[in-house]
Specification:
The complex is a heterodimer. Chain A is α/β, with parallel strands linked by helices. Chain A contains 17 helices and 22 strands. Chain A has 2 domains: about 230 residues, Rossmann fold (3-Layer(aba) Sandwich), CATH 3.40.50; about 240 residues, Rossmann fold. The longest helix of chain A is centred in the middle third of the chain and has 16 residues. The two termini of chain A are about 50 Å apart. About 0% of the residues of chain A have low confidence. The model of chain B has no long low-confidence stretch (mean pLDDT about 90). Chain B contains 12 helices and no strands. The radius of gyration of chain B is 19 Å and the shape is globular. Chain B has one domain: ABC transporter involved in vitamin B12 uptake, BtuC (Orthogonal Bundle), CATH 1.10.3470. The chains are: A alpha/beta, B mainly alpha. Chains A and B meet through helix 2 and helix 3 of A and helix 7 and helix 8 of B.
Chain lengths: ~500, ~300
Amino acid sequence: MAVPLIRLENISKSFGRVRANHQVSLTIEQGRVLALLGENGAGKSTLMSILAGQLQPDSGTIFVDGQPLAITATDKAIEAGIGMVYQHFKLVGALTVAENIFLGRPGGLWLNLRTMQAEVVALAERYGMQVDPAALISDLSMGERQQVEILKLLQRESRVLIFDEPTAVLTPHEADNLFATMRKMTALGKGIVFISHKLEEVMAVADRIAILRRGEIVDTVAAAEVASTAELAERMVGREVLLRVEKSPMEARQIVLKVSDLTTPVLAGVSLELRQGEILALVGVAGNGQKQLVEAICGLHRPAPESVRILGMEWAEFFGRGNRDNTLSYIPEDRQGLATCQGLDLLDNFLLTTRGGFSRGPWLDRRRAAEKIGHLLGEFDIRPADPQAFAWQLSGGNLQKLVLAREFYRRPRLIVAEQPTQGLDIAAAEDVWNLLLKAREAAGVLVVTGDLGEAFALADRIGVMYNGRIVALFASDDEEMVALIPQMMAGLAAAD
Amino acid sequence: MTFEILILLLAAAVQSGTPILYATLGEIFTEKSGVLNLGVEGTMILGALAGFVTARLTGSPLLGFFLAGVVGSLATSIHGVVCLIFQGNQVVSGLALTILGLGLANYLGTGYVGLSAPGFDPLPLPGLAAIPLLGPIFFRHDILVYCSYILVPLIWLFFTRTRLGLALRAVGEYPAAATAAGLSVAAHRWLGVLVGGFLMGLGGAYLSLAYTHLWTSNLTAGRGWIAVALVIFAFWRPGRAVFGAYLFGGIMALQLRLQATGTQVPSSILLMLPYLLTVLVLVFSSWRRGSGEAPAALGINEEPVD
C-alpha cells in the first residue's frame, strides 16, 4: 500500500490532570473516509485541533507523506494540505461566496470578480456541488454555507479534509448531499476524516472507524466488518465498567418528579417518576431529547399543562413561586456558562442561587455568606479555597464541586444533573459521584449522562433515551436489560 | 434672483461639506476594518493646526495639507496602540483622543489665533465651470474639493475591487474567518486606523487652509462628531457619504446666511441646526435599516491567539 497521507503516532495531550488524548495512533489514507467516533468529551476535537495546528501535542509525532512534521500553527497545516471544516463556519456573512473563497489568497492588486466566479463554479461542478458564486453568505442555508467552506479548502488544494460534526447543522437531505460530496472527494483522491457520534452516519459513509473513549483509541475497525449500529454502540460505550463507588440501597419515598406524556417538537411522549432517595440515570447518545427533557423540568421551557409535576405541584405553580429553597437544583452541563459567571468571584457565584438565604430586605448579608462559603470550600475540598478567587481560575472539577456545594446548600429535594463529570479527571469524577450519592438521602436525583460507567456507578434505575422517547426504564441490577443497552441506544431493541 | 441665491447656497454647501466629507471617508475606512474611532474631532483639529502652522512657516499650503494628513495618522496611531496592541476599550480610547486633540490644538494654537496663512483659493475648472447650474455649484472651488471628488470613487473601488480592500472588509466583519484565511487582523486594522487618520487630518486642514485661511480656537466646532454620525447615515458607503456631507454642509451654510440676514430667530437656535439634524439623521438611519449594515465586528477587539 502507498504511504498514508497522514500518520499520527502516539499522540498524547493533557490539560492539567485531564488526559484529553493518550497514545493515539491513526492513519489517514488517500481516497478513504476515516470516521472518528466517540462521546462528547472523548477527545475527538482535541485530536483534530492538534492536526489542524491549533494545539500542540505533549508527545507523539505526526507524519505527512511519511515525513515527520511539526504542525506548529494553522498556516503550517494549510501548507501541509490539511483543511478543517469547523462546526462554526469561518465565513464572512457580508461577503459573497467567491469573495469568501478567495479571501487571503495571493494575487495582484485587483480582484477579477468574473474569473473568480468562473473558477468557483468550475470547482463546485467537479465535486458535484451547485453554488451561486455571487450570492451573499448571509443569504445561504447552513448546507450551502458548508459547501462554501469545503470549496475554500478545495481551492487551497487541501488533500485531507477534516469534518467536525458536519451534520449537526444540516437537514437530512443536506446531509445526504454532503455524503455524496464526500464520496466524490475520495474518488478524486482526497483523504477525509469524519468526526461524529451519530452511528448511522458513520456506518453510511466511513471506510474505517476509529473509536475514542476517554482520550484513547479503543478500537479501529473496517466499516465493512461492523455488523450493525448496535455493535458500534457497544464498542463506543464499552463493556467493562468500573464500579468503584460504594452505594447502599435506599428506601425510595415520596414522588418528587412526575413527567407524564411530555411531548414537544423533539420529545415524543416521555413519562417517568422519580422518588426521593433514588437516582435515575438517563443514558443515550446525545441529541435524542435529553436536553429538551431537562429544560422542561428545570423551567427553561414551558411544557404542556399537566405534563410535568414537581414536588406534587403543577409546573406553572411550582415555577410561579418565588421560593426555590428546599426544592429543585439544576446542575447544567455547561458549568462555565449556565451554572457560573466566569468573571465573578466564588462568593458572588455562591450567591447566584442562594442569595434568598442571605438577604435582609434589599440588603445582602455578605459577611454571613462569606463565612458560610469559606466553610463549604473546605468541606467540599474546593481549591483554591478562597472566596475572592474568580470562577475562571478554577479547574473543571473544582468548579463543578463549587456548583454542587452551592446547590446542596439549598437542601434540594429534586436534583437534575446533566453530564456531571464530563471533562473531569477520575479523582474529581469520583468526588462528584460520592456527593451525588450522599445527596440522594434527601432528594430524588435525575442524572443525564452519555457515560454508561457513570450510570452504573450512580443509578438505582436506568432509562434509555432514543429519538425523543424513553425506550426502556429498568433497575440497574437487571442484568438482562443492562446487556441490551447498546441495542436500545441504537434504537434497535423494542423493549418495555 | 432667488435662483441665484439658491445656486450660491448649494455651492457653499459643497464647500462647507468637504471637510466633513474627508473626515467621514476617513471614519468609514477605519470602521470598515472593525475599529470604531470616536477621536475624529480631535484628529481633525490636530490636522487643522498642523496644516495651518506648516503653511504659515513654509509658505506652501500643499505641504501643509500633506503634513496635516501625517499628523492625523500620528494622532490615530495613539488609538491604534491602545486598541490594537493593548486591547483597550475602543469607545473610551476614541473619546480620550478627542479630548486630547482639542486640548492640545487649542493650547499649541494660542499664539496663532487670529493670524492667517497662505491657503487654497478657488480655481474654476476651465470648461466645466461654464456648465450651467452644475458649473457654479461643483466646479468653481479650490483644488481640495476636486480631490475629494476623485477620492470617493477611489475608496469605493478599493473596497469592492481590490484584494486588500476585501481583506480589510473581512477583518471588520468576522476576524476569525480572516485569521483562518491566513490574514493578520492586527495589520489590516492598523491600515484602517492610519489611513482613516490621514483622511481625518486632511479634513481638518481643509478648514484652516481653504474654508478659512485663519486659525481660531475650536475651529472644527463638532464637525468630527457629525462625521461619526454620517458614517451610520451613509451605511458605510462612500457614495452616500457625499450626499450626507453636502446635506450638512448645506445646513451649516444656510444658518450662516440666515444669521447674516438678521432674522428674528435667536442665533443659538440656528447654530444648533446641524446638530439637531445629526440626531434626526441617526433616528432616520436606525429606523430605516437598524444597524444591519455596520461591519459586524465593529468596536470589538480581537484577542490575539496564543
